[in-house]
């Protein structure tokens, strides 16, 4: 989820400063992905919040297939 600067380990340990730093680094990307997928600001806010809560609950262990997650120009076919 994070660059190799120790943030992932600190995040997984629940260190408040690491959680704040992770949110500052990636919060807009998470929200943008949710907004692109859901096309509703309210739903995207809820989904982004749920994403961060899931990351916190699982110590940041949610993976994107081994690749960094990046926004696309639009929805992708499943």
Termini Cα gap = 22 Å
| Average pLDDT score | 82
**Count of strand segments:** 0
Report the structural category. mainly alpha
Taking the sheet with the most strands, its summary is:
none
> Which parts are unreliable, with pLDDT below 50 for 5 consecutive residues or more?
none
Q: Compute the CA-based radius of gyration.
A: 13 Å
What does this structure look like?
This protein has 78 residues and is mainly alpha-helical. It has 3 helices and no strands. The model has no long low-confidence stretch (mean pLDDT 82).
List the defining traits of the structure above:
78 residues, mainly alpha, 3 helices, 0% strand, elongated
Q: What is the element layout, followed by pairings?
A:
Layout: H1 7-12, H2 16-38, H3 41-57
Helix pairs in contact: 2-3
Write a brief caption for the model.
This protein is mostly helical. Helix content is 59%, strand content 0%. Helix 2 (16-38) runs antiparallel to helix 3 (41-57).
